[in-house]
Amino acid sequence: MPTAMAKRERYENRIEMLQGTLDMLILQTLCWGPQHGYGIGQAIRFGSGDVLQVETGSLYPALHRLAKQDWIKSEWRVSEHNQRAKYYQLTAAGKKQLASEHSRWNQLSTAIASLMNPGESKGQG
Question: CB of 36 within 8 A of CB of 86?
Fold first, then answer.
C-alpha cells in the first residue's frame, strides 16, 4: 500500500493537461485508425513516453463529449483479445476539428516558448 508521501509525490509529478488538450490527443490518436478506449489511453501513454497517463474517469467522459459533438463515432466490435469492446473512429468533422486544434496548439506552444525563453525566440540565444 503506497504511503501518503508516495501518493503526494505521484500527484505532484503528474503533468496536468490544459483544458481541451485531452480532446485533441484523443482525436490525434484516432487519426491513426479506430481504437477502443483502453487502446486510446495506451497510445497516449506510450506516445508520450509514459509522461501522459489518462485516467478512466477523464477518458470516457471525453469520449462521450466528442461523440456528442459528432467528432467521433463508435461501434461495438470484438477486440484482439476476443472481447466485446466499443471502438471509436474519427469523423470528417473530427478531422476538421483536429486540424483546428493542432493549429491552435502550435500557436499556444510557440507563445509559451517565447515567454519562457525570450532571448531564443528573437534569435539572441
Answer: yes
